[in-house]
Amino acid sequence: MVLTYSFRDPSLAALALTHRSAGKPNNERMEFLGDALLGAIVAEMLYETHPKATEGEMSRLRAQLVNGQALASMARELELGEQLKLGSGELKSGGFRRDSILADAFEALVAAVYLDGGFDACRQTVRTLFADRVAALPRSSKDAKTRLQEWLQAQGWPLPQYDLVATEGEEHARTFEVSCMIGEPVSVTASGRGSSRRLAEQDAAELVLTRLAVAQEGH
Amino acid sequence: MVLTYSFRDPSLAALALTHRSAGKPNNERMEFLGDALLGAIVAEMLYETHPKATEGEMSRLRAQLVNGQALASMARELELGEQLKLGSGELKSGGFRRDSILADAFEALVAAVYLDGGFDACRQTVRTLFADRVAALPRSSKDAKTRLQEWLQAQGWPLPQYDLVATEGEEHARTFEVSCMIGEPVSVTASGRGSSRRLAEQDAAELVLTRLAVAQEGH
């Protein structure tokens, strides 16, 4: 894997590869910007490639692609470790091999491309870097109830309970509201809506999956 | 406040204002994309307007600007509530006034501008919408030790303890490493670096602030 971008201002690339242990200025501020850009560009890729995925599914897929470990491994493929500027302490302790330092440099480099060449250049660079990984994602995902069930079983947690809460509207345009509840060891309830009971259950399961994902990220 | 963008394809704007209670298609997928774009565009504004802010400070400033309540209030200024398409249940229960529904519509609208007009149009629209709010942010922020102390006092928590952990390097280019520890009721320790003990303490305090902010978001 190579970076398909040539910097007009190489000092931006150098700054992106300067870790805070080397003093100031360093890549910390760029990392903030790069993280946000990466999130948006990968979000758009998933929006395009997964037209039927829900918000929750896209959010989980993005977390698979954009996390410290994944970005560190991309940084290694780009051989960023060898180019990092580190303070003497981090140098001695092998900081150029640390996931967090590599992932931060990768994010900062994305910001550097944006600052040097603008959004289109940054978007094209990120899309090229992530193309294979996005293409390798599962396409037709399982339905939300199945995914929730499999996830709960993998944790060894009890299965969810679905209850019809309400039906609304005329006979020919009825809306069903169903709650999905898991009680232990974490209590999460969500209610979903749909034009059939089955669709409302899927909707509720999807919401519970999203909340479980959010709760996990918090840990 | 008005939206300074005219849609070429008004159906994208209409979709952005269609809540899931009205059935499918709705604005949920667009909200995912809009949230990410908003994060990146506001990150860039802060990167430009706060050249001395650390990553942690920019992250906190962005959370002040981009959160459910703030976006809902912007949605109200744009009178999005009146234009929302809601299912009958949400209509009856006044869903057009709910913060979460309004904030989601605002985010979806940002994505709709992107899909309709491209990144530059979206960026310009968001920058115009946020200009006053960004300008109103505190400029010269207090140093990290002061902010950490004030934050801990506001919670009624004990003050942090700073300890010199190590010094590295030659006399004329020494690096100090200082740990900052809070013990109760939450235990957080971080170590910071700097060319003086004072700078290393600031750095450590900043890291503790960032971790406290992350822990808070998880709740």
UniProtKB/TrEMBL annotation, chains A, B:
GO terms for cellular component: cytoplasm. Residues 143-214 form the DRBM domain. The active site is at D35, E107. PROSITE patterns: DS_RBD, RNASE_3_1, RNASE_3_2. It catalyses: Endonucleolytic cleavage to 5'-phosphomonoester. HAMAP family: RNase_III (MF_00104). This is Ribonuclease 3. It comes from Dyella monticola. The gene is rnc.
